[in-house]
Amino acid sequence: MDSAIFDWNFERIKTNGVELNTLVEGEGPLVILLHGFPQCSFLWRHQIQPIIDAGYRVAVPDQRGYGTSDAPAEITEYTIRKLAGDVAGIAGALGYSEFIVIGQDWGAPVAWHTALLHEDTCRAVMGMSVPYTRMDDWNGWIENPSTENGFWYMRYFQQVGIPEREIEKNLKEGLHRFYSTLCAESSGAWINQVNHPKEASILDIMAPANQKLSWLSEGELNYYVNFFKEEGLRGPINWYRAIPLNGSDTMELSAKKISQPAAFISGAKDDVLKYGGLNNEWFDAMDAWFLDLKFKTLIEDAGHWLQCEKPKETTREILKFLETVG
Predict the structure, then answer these.
(1) Which residues of the chain form beta strands (DSSP E)?
(2) Sheet holding 293-299: strands in order across?
């Protein structure tokens, strides 16, 4: 990897039975930043310094299964309970009795569940791109009823080995197409996957790799390619394969609301918001699960990768939340 474009201090942190390669910088109250798929700590490159400058210590792990962080072989090692335990363990390993967690994409459900499962130490939570819902609901999304005869990536990812091989065949093209398909410039392309045949490949449903992205340079794309070359995509895709385990594994949360101060932001052109219906029903329905939801913001002209597509606007909302919770 080209460390010159992401020159921070990384530590190997032992937490919850694994070691996670974790960026640790700054002084002050602890803020833990969580990436999703297919991302890594590099996702937060525009936000790290402003959060440090605001008076916080920042910990940004390459999460379980990613890069040089530990990647257990068993799918059972990627349940939401274990992922949330990893986060709480980072705080303890760094000597903190409390922390704030902010997560995007898969990092958002991990952040939400960290708040639910570790109320004694997680004092505030912010999610990005993926609103909160019960993990039982995710089980229904694997076999999305609207996609009985169409392609759906969560169902596709349940296959063992095939998704990794297809994407890693040309890793640079595969990653570029993921980032292209889910950004604002391609709004509608990701959700359109349901109109492709059920037996399609993930590569069949994504935008072409020739799209030049204003928010992703060639050097930044190469950073991602080199990152995922190290250990591949098996660990990250195992997060999806563990989805059927999460509902039964968190039954005590079936009616539990998030009590900590919370906030949510997303790109206004993010196709993921359409999972609950084309009129952002999921975005609207999440309010019922919070006791202290400070604000929800949709960032104009941003898609799924809002930290990179609209870094200034995204950073502003994060700092607003941190100021709100003190």
Answers:
(1) 10-15, 18-26, 30-34, 57-61, 99-104, 122-128, 262-267, 293-299
(2) 10-15, 18-26, 57-61, 30-34, 99-104, 122-128, 262-267, 293-299
List the structure tokens of 3.
Answer: 């460390």
pLDDT (mean) for 219-248: 95
CA distances from residue 283 to 32, 263, 278, 296, 321 in whole angstroms, order as listed: 23, 12, 11, 9, 18
Read off the pLDDT of residues 166-175 as tens digits, 9 standing for 90 and up.
999 999 999 9
Orientation of helix 218-231 relative to helix 171-181, angle to 10°: 120
Q: In this predicted structure, what is the pLDDT of residue 127?
A: 98
CA distances from 107 to 36, 63, 87, 184 (A): 5, 9, 10, 20
What are the residues whose beta carbons fall under 8 Å from the beta carbon of 120, sequence distance 6 or more? none
**Residue 13 pLDDT more than 90?**
yes
d(C-alpha 185, C-alpha 108), whole Å:
23
For the ranges 120-134, 144-158, 209-223, 280-294, the lowest mean pLDDT is seen at 144-158
> Whole-angstrom Cα distance, residue 107 to residue 281?
21
pLDDT band at 282, cuts 50/70/90? confident
* Tokens representing residue 253 in the block: 């949360």
* pTM of the predicted protein model: 0.96
Nearest to 245 by CA among 21, 126, 2, 78: 78
> Would you call 290 helix, strand, or coil by DSSP?
strand
Predicted confidence band at 278 (pLDDT cuts at 50, 70, 90)?
low
Overall size of the chain counted in residues: 326
- Tokens linked to 62: 């390459």
**Residue 112 amino acid letter:** W
Other CB atoms within 10 A of residue 62 CB: 22
* Domains of the chain, CATH where assigned: 3-325 (3.40.50.1820)
